[in-house]
């Protein structure tokens, strides 16, 4: 069984890839996968200690809101789809920047713990 951090990272990557795929080719299928992965990320993040789960929970909740807006917009109001798309891009940019910062803080060699 994966540790909480490893499971969160894998499922979050699926959510990010599905969201990015939707931005490239809008369709309900990509949003459904992104939404399901976002819910799974939240479920995994809840199992983590409170100090380390605040940001993942806030990010996943925000992404879920924007994905829901985009899903509703695909089927009814175009401006909801645009607003959801802009929100998804904003969350993706923040998420990628945060991940790059975290990866940049890792040691370059495995033996330097």
Structural class: mainly alpha
Query: What is the total domain count?
Result: 1
* Average pLDDT reading: 77
Low-confidence stretches: none
Please bin the fraction of helical residues: over 70%
What is the overall shape?
elongated
Q: How many strands?
A: 0
Rg estimate, integer Å? 15 Å
Largest sheet: none
Contiguous helical run count: 4
Reading the helices and strands in chain order gives: HHHH
Share in β-strands: under 5%
- The separation of the N and C termini measures 24 Å
Question: Secondary structure elements and their pairing?
Answer:
Layout: H1 4-24, H2 28-46, H3 50-75, H4 78-104
Helix pairs in contact: 1-2, 1-4, 2-3, 3-4
Can you describe this structure?
By secondary structure, the chain is an all-alpha fold. The protein has one domain (4-105). It has 4 helices and no strands. The protein has helices spanning 4-24, 28-46, 50-75, 78-104. α1 packs across α4. The longest helix has 27 residues, at 78-104. The model has no long low-confidence stretch (mean pLDDT 77).
Question: What brief labels describe this structure?
Answer:
single chain; 113 residues; mainly alpha
């Amino acid at each position: 069984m994966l540790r909480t951090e490893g499971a969160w990272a894998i499922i979050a990557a699926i959510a990010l890839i599905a969201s990015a795929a939707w931005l490239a080719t809008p369709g309900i299928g990509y949003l459904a996968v992104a939404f399901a992965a976002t819910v799974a990320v939240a479920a995994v993040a809840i199992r983590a200690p409170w100090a380390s789960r605040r940001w993942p929970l806030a990010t996943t909740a925000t992404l879920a809101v924007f994905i829901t807006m985009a899903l509703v917009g695909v089927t009814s109001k175009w401006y909801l789809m645009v607003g959801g798309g802009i929100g998804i891009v904003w969350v993706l940019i923040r998420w990628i920047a945060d991940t790059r910062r975290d990866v940049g803080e890792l040691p370059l060699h495995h033996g330097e713990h």
